[in-house]
Amino acid sequence: MLYLTYPESPKPFLIVWRFRYHSHSNGKQTDTSTMNTSIVLTVIADDQPGIIKTVSKTLNKHDGNWTQSSMNSLAGQFAGILLASVPEAKTEACLAELHGLESQGLRIIAHVSGKETETGKCHDYSLELVGNDRQGIIHDISRILVSHKVSVNEFETSVEAASMGGGEIFRARAQLSVPESCDIFALENELEDIANDLMVEISFEK
Q1: What is the 3-state secondary structure (H, E, C) of 138-195?
Q2: For residue 133, what are the domain limits?
């Protein structure tokens, strides 16, 4: 594996803001016998205060529960994906009101989730990559992961201006689900080979 050394840049070229939110009860008495619908929402809008409040207010109005999310602010745009649970009887009305938020500048795409796909036993791994930015880094890494049937649960990237040489530094972090049947030794070797080819530093650990 080839490791690059360079001073850290004090001024990032691109700032990625990210948080994850796991909610508890919305404060209302919940009827545990009620059948709920799982809804995956993507939200895109010009970045501005109040976006999360607007979406959560709509969900709360229909007794929905915001359970999991990932939000980012990129180049002046707010982009988020979230999982919500809404009572079956109120799902249609909730979705209609969420789509109506487009009048406030929020574009919301909803997907009603079915049953989760059954998978074999997997192990959690983290992958981090740092190196000079160049075309095709993500394509080359993802090709290796797919060949070993590795799933990406979370993925975050950013590009920073390098303080020396005038180039740009690419950073990536991923949380992975690696099947128990995966040949970890072979996967690590392939990642090390691609790190040498791309001249980047890759960390892969459980």
Answers
A1: HHHHHHHHHHCCCEEEEEEEEEEECCCCCCEEEEEEEEEEEECCCCHHHHHHHHHHHH
A2: 122-205
